[in-house]
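Lab meeting, action items carried over

1. Structure of the three-component assembly. Owner: GW. Status: complete.
Input record:
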Amino acid sequence: MRLITYGNENATKKYTPRRAMMYVPGNDWKKINKISSMGADSFILDCEDGVALNRKDEARSNIQKIFQEKMFSVLKSELSVRINSIESGLCKKDLETILKGPIFPSTLHLPKMETKVQLDWLAQELESLLGKNHNIKLIVFVESARALLDMKELIQHCFTLMDQGAPFNLEAAVFGSDDFCADIGATRTPEAKELIYSRQHFVTCAKAYRLQAIDLVYINFKDMDGLLRQSVEGAQMGFTGKQVIHPSQIEIVQQAFSPSKEKIQWARELVQSFDQHQQSGKGAFTFHGNMIDMPLLLQARNILKMADRLDQN
Amino acid sequence: MRLITYGNENATKKYTPRRAMMYVPGNDWKKINKISSMGADSFILDCEDGVALNRKDEARSNIQKIFQEKMFSVLKSELSVRINSIESGLCKKDLETILKGPIFPSTLHLPKMETKVQLDWLAQELESLLGKNHNIKLIVFVESARALLDMKELIQHCFTLMDQGAPFNLEAAVFGSDDFCADIGATRTPEAKELIYSRQHFVTCAKAYRLQAIDLVYINFKDMDGLLRQSVEGAQMGFTGKQVIHPSQIEIVQQAFSPSKEKIQWARELVQSFDQHQQSGKGAFTFHGNMIDMPLLLQARNILKMADRLDQN
Amino acid sequence: MRLITYGNENATKKYTPRRAMMYVPGNDWKKINKISSMGADSFILDCEDGVALNRKDEARSNIQKIFQEKMFSVLKSELSVRINSIESGLCKKDLETILKGPIFPSTLHLPKMETKVQLDWLAQELESLLGKNHNIKLIVFVESARALLDMKELIQHCFTLMDQGAPFNLEAAVFGSDDFCADIGATRTPEAKELIYSRQHFVTCAKAYRLQAIDLVYINFKDMDGLLRQSVEGAQMGFTGKQVIHPSQIEIVQQAFSPSKEKIQWARELVQSFDQHQQSGKGAFTFHGNMIDMPLLLQARNILKMADRLDQN
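Predicted assembly:
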C-alpha cells in the first residue's frame, strides 16, 4: 500500500466544499444583505481589492460586527474573510480588528502570497492574536509570476510552519488570474490559451499537497455558455472550484464542480470496503483487485463529504 | 563545439528502441504466450498494476522461470519486468525472486518513483542482489503531482547514484497518466488538453538528461484515428515512444514514432561527416556550415540505430 | 502599496523597444548595408549561427569596424551584437575583438546560456575588458531543455552577479525555439502546440524578473496570416517582441507587439496620477480606487516610453 503524507493531511477532518467562491466587499451592505439568499458554497467578506483605500476601516469594523453579532449564524455556506496582502501594510490592522473576538471567522484568505518571510510574519501575527490553540483555516492566493514559480516552496513552507505549531491549517489555493496576467503582461482571451501553463502548474502544485484548487474568474458574466465551458474544463484539469463574480454564475459553476453519480458510487463502495478491511485487519488494502493508497481514500472521502453536503442543501 | 554531458550518456552504447511498450501480466500465460507473435519493441512482464494482490507470488515465479528457461531467447523485442512500487512493500520480494539468477532481465521498470530515499533503497537492494559489476537498465515512472514537480531532482539523483556506482543505468522515463490524473483529480478527455503541461514538462525533464520519453496510453483501443492523432502529437512533442494496451495499437504507434527517411538521411550524413572529421582531427566539428554538439550527434546516432533495428525486423 | 523589487529594476532607466529583433550575419555586407532601410526595433550583428566557422574572424573584424567608424550612427534602431556561445570556445575572441574599443556596442546577445559557471566567466571577461564602470546591456538565450528547466536560477544568478558589480545589465531573454526543439526532439508545427509549455514557462520566468521576453521565429516567411496569428498569440501570452528572419515580417510583428491606444491612455493617466501623488506625498498610491504597485507603474512607464519611441519613427 502506498502511503504518502505531505503536510498534515488528515483523513478524518471535515471537508468544506468550495465549488463556487464569491467575494462580497466588506463595506457594501447592499451586497452583504444578499448573502443569505444566494447559494454559493463559500462567501468571502473582502477587505482587499473590492474595497477602496478610504473604506478599509469601514469594511474591517463591519466584518468584525458581522461575526460578533452572528448575523449569518444559520448560513449553510462558509463565511470567511479576505484580508489585505501582507506587503500592503494594511494586513496587521485587518487582523487586529477582525480577530479581536471572541467570535471570529474560521477561514482567512491571504491574497498575493509572495515570500516565505510573509508567511512567517502571518504565523507570528496569528499566534500573538489567537494563541497556539486556535487553528484557523487558511486559503492562499497565487497572483504573480514569482509566486507561481515559487508555489511549491511557498506551500511547503506553510506546512513546515504548521508542523512547528503555526495556528493555521492550509486548505486551498486560489489562482488570481487577473493580477497574474497583469504581472506577466498577458491579455485574457475567452479560450484562455495564454493560461494553460499557469493553470495546470497551479493545479499540480496544489494537488501535490492535497489542497483544494480554485480556478480563475470568468469575467464576462453574461456569457453562460462560455462560463459552463470554462468551468467544465477547469474541473477536467483537476480544479475543485471556481471564483464567481455574479450570482448568476453560482449554479452553473457548482454543477460543473459537483461529483457525478458514478463517482459518488465509486467513492461509497471504496470507503465501505476500506472500513470492512480495517475491521478484519489484514494486509494491504485492495479494491476491485487494485491496491488503494491513502490519497485516493482521502479523495473518496472528500467526494462523499461533498455529496453529503450537497444533499443537505 | 558545445559539449554538454549530463549523467553518463555514452555515444557508443547500444540503443534500444521503445516506440511501442506493452505490459503483459506476469500471471497470465494466455497473454504471455502471445508475445512471440506480436511485434512491439518492448514487452514488460508485469508484477504491478496488472496483477491482483493474491496473484503476486505466481507472477514473480512465472517471470523468474521465463528467464531461467530462456523461453523468449529468440525474441527480437526487449523483454523486461515491471516490479511493484517501493512504497508498496512488495518490491523487495519481487527483486529477490526475479533477480536470483543466474539469468535475469536486462531491464527493470520502477513504477511510482516519488522520493530520493526510494532510489537510494533501490540502488542498495540491487547492489546486494547483483553486486557492483552488473548494470541493469532502469526505466522510471512518473505518476503523481509530486513526482512530476520533483522530476528533475529525482532524475538527477539517479545519475548521482550511477556516478557513485549504483548497478543500474537509467535509460527512459514513462508518463503514467492514469495514476497522475487520479492523483490531481483530473479527468481524461480525448484531446488531452488537461495534460498539456504535464506531458510537455515531462518531456523537457527527460530530454534534459537524454532519456527516452514514453507517452501516455490511449485508452479507447477501438479508436484508431484517435490513437494515430495522439501518437503523432506525442512524437511532435518530443516523446520517443508510447505505452500500448492492445496488440492492434502496436503498428500505428510504431509508425508514428519511427524516424522519417529525411531524418535518417540527415543522421547518416552527419555521422559520416563526424567520423571523417575525427580522422582528420582538426578544430570544431561543423556540418553544412553549422557547429554540431555532442547531444545532436548522439541524437543522430540513435536515429541510425533505430533505423538499423527497424531494418532487421 | 505592494513593492516588490527583483534584481535592480529601475523605474527611471531608458526603455529600449525590441518588438521585432532581426539578425544580420556579421560577414554579409549585402545584408548589413540594408539595415538603414529597414525599420526593425533591434538589429543584431551576428557572430554565431548565421556565420560559418571559417568566416568568424571576418565577422568579428567587420563588426568592430562598424562600431569604430560609426557606420550606423544615425540609426534609430538598436544595433547590437550576438557573440558565440561560451561553450563554443569562440566567445573569448569575439569579445576581445568587438570590445577593444574605444567605441563598442551597448548591447550583447549571449546565445545558449546553460550554466552559472558560464555567467561567472562572462562577468569576469567583461570586467577585464571593460572595467567595472561600464554597464553593457545583456540579452540571454534559452535554447535547451536544461536551460529552460534552470531558467529561474540562471536569471537569478545574473542578478546576483549584477548586485556584485558585474558590468552588465540583463534586459531581455530570447526563446531559441529551433535549438530547443532539436534538443528535446520535438517537431515544429504551424500551431506550435508542442511549445505551449516552454513558451509560457519562459514568459513566466522572464516576467518574474521584469525582463523583456522575445518569442520564437515564425519560419515560413511567406505566410503572413500565420505570422500575424502567432505574433498576436505571443503578445497575448505576455511576450514583448519576436525574432524575425525576413524584412517582410517586421511590420506585422511590430503591429502585434505595439500597445493599443487604450493601454497608452491608461498608462498616461496612471503615471500622471502617480506624479501628482508624489508631490502631495501622502499614504499609499491608488488609481481609480485601486492600489498601484511598483511593477505596474514600471509597466505603465514602459508603455509610454514605447509609445514615445513609436511616435519618433
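2. GW to write a short summary for the group page. Key points so far: DSSP finds twelve helices and ten strands in chain A. The interface with chain C takes residues 49, 52-53, 85, 87-89, 112, 114, 144-146, 148-149, 181-187, 189, 193-194, 196-198, 201 of chain A (CB under 8 Å).
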